[in-house]
Amino acid sequence: MEKTIGNKVINLGDDGYLTDFSQWDKDIAIALAKEKNIEMTDAHWMVIEYLQGKHKNDEALSIRGIKKSGKFNIKEFYGLFPGGPLKISTLIAGIPKPKSCI
Amino acid sequence: MATKVKKMLFILSKATIENVYAAFIMANGARMEGIEAEIFFTFFGLEAIEKKKIEHLKVATVGNPAMHIPTLLGGLPGVEAFATRMMKKEMEKLDMPPIDEFLEILSDSGVSLWACQLAVEMFHLKENDLIDELDGILTIGDFYNRADVEGTHLLFI
């Protein structure tokens, strides 16, 4: 489905995730975050950057990876993206929903 | 669509690796979906939070038809250790954390970890025999009282 944010049109899959990462920019992230009642801060951007970096390198995302990231810990991660941190943060980052069970 | 499950309460009564991981993966998975999760460790399940035992948990090779080896063979010396080593290797390949690290992850993720008071007394354990991440020692009644929101489910493993 298509969605208009500001003056940009983005494509979302059935699960609400961006299907084409080239459509992603910070304004889109801010708008997607707002829908989840999240106000983006520097800490949020740092997580988004980390996730996008991992995705670019084809590395699977997991909660264990967050623990090992050395940049932020699991508690902070849950605090920044309450209600399903990996699901919500990847949605805002414009990358696919992680498939792992852990 | 949001799930109707709001809180998962797990009762872990065994400490074979397959049961411990079942509980841990489901508890972690709940938190990842925004669902509250707590684990109550009782009877042999306590070994999963006993500092001295965590490293030595095993896969059940006897009385476990899914092992597909004769029961007699499963009881031979070394078979249990071998099966455990194999399973741990496969888990590492899938990036599944070892049990001690998994407990830290659960605790950091907001999963409350409780020890059963009766079982603690039965095995003559003290609080410092148990992991530092433990949230406390409860009676089963106390644990039931934690089913305080609509959409709470209890699961016995």
What is the fourth-level CATH superfamily of chain B? Answer: DsrEFH-like
Name the overall outline of chain B: globular
Q: For the largest sheet of chain B, list the strands in their spatial order.
A: 4-3-2-1-5
Instruction: State the strand order across the main sheet of chain A.
Output: 1-2
Question: What is the CATH fold-level name of chain B?
Answer: Hypothetical Protein Ychn, Chain: A
Contiguous low-pLDDT stretches of chain A (5 residues minimum) are none
Q: Roughly how many Å is the radius of gyration of chain A?
A: 13 Å
Kindly report the average pLDDT value of chain A: 90
**Amino- and carboxy-terminal Cα gap of chain A:** 29 Å
Q: What is the string of helix and strand elements of chain B?
A: EHEHHHEHEHE
The helical percent of chain B reads 25-40%
- How many structurally independent domains of chain B? 1
**What proportion of the residues of chain A form beta strands (DSSP E)?**
5-15%
Number of helices of chain A: 5
Structural class of chain B: alpha/beta
Helix content of chain A: 40-55%
Give the secondary structure arrangement, pairings included:
The complex is a heterodimer of chains A (102) and B (157).
Chain A: E1 2-5, E2 8-11, H1 26-35, H2 42-56, H3 63-68, H4 74-80, H5 85-93
Antiparallel strand pairs in A: 1-2
Helix pairs in contact in A: 1-5, 2-5
Chain B: E1 7-12, H1 17-32, E2 36-41, H2 71-74, H3 79-93, H4 99-108, E3 112-116, H5 117-122, E4 136-138, H6 140-144, E5 152-156
Parallel strand pairs in B: 1-2, 1-5, 2-3, 3-4
Helix pairs in contact in B: 1-4
